[in-house]
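Journal club side-thread
Mid-discussion, someone asked how the predicted structure for our own chain would compare to the paper's figures. Pasting it here so we can look after the session.
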Amino acid sequence: MDPEITAPPGPPPVTLDCDHLSVREINSLLRTLDGAAGTVTHPRGRHNLAVGLTEPVSITVHGNAGYFVGGLCGARDGTGPDIVVHGFVGWSVGENLMGGTIRVRGSASQSAGASARGGRIFVEGHASLRAGISLKGAAIVVAGDAGAMTGFMAQAGTILIGGDAGHALGDSLYEAVIYVQGTIASLGADAVVEEMTDDDMLAVKRLVEDSGFDHIDPGRVTKVVSARQLYYFSTHHHGTY
C-alpha cells in the first residue's frame, strides 16, 4: 500500500509587535508575507495598519485599531487580504477597499467602508455615522445599529444593517441598496422604501451566510433605494436674482 501523501506545511505565521515596530515597518513586512499568515499585536489604536495590501494573505490584529485599518487593500479582480480585527476600529475601516474581506469583532467609528469599490466589510458590533459614505461597489454588513447618514451618496454596492438605522438613511443615494432589519429613524433626501423582490431576499441571505450574522432574517428587512429625483436638475429658474 502506498504511503499517505500529505501536503507540505505552509510558511509559519509572522508576528509583528506594534510596541517594537513602526506602522510603516509593519506594513512593509505585511507586504512580504508571501502566503504566510500575519499577526499584529499591541496595536493600541495605531492608525493606517494593514493598508495597501493586494495579495490574498490572512492578517489578524489583536486589539483596537485606529483610523483607516485595511484601507486601500485588494486588487482589481476583487481578490485581497482577509483581515480580522479583534477589537474596535476608528474612522474609515476599509476605506477605498478594492477586494478581500475585513471583519471587525467590535464596533466601528465613523465612515466605515468609505468609497469602498469591492470586497466585504463585516462589523460584529455597531457602526457610527456615515457608514458606507460614497460606497462604490463593496458590501458592508453591520450586525448591530448604524448611525446617522449611513449610505450617504452611496453610488453602488450593498449595505445590510442587522439592527436599527439612524436619521437621514441613504441621503443622496445613487444606485447602492440598503437593507435594514430594525427601525429606521428617518430617510435622507431622495431615499425611498421599495418592496423586496426574490433577488433581494437571495442577496440578503447570501450576506447573512457570509457574515455569520444569523440573527438577521431576510424576511424582516426593509429595502431602501434611490428615488432618482436628484439625478437631474433643471436649468430653468423663476424670478430674478
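Post-session note: Residues 198-211 form the longest helix (14 residues).
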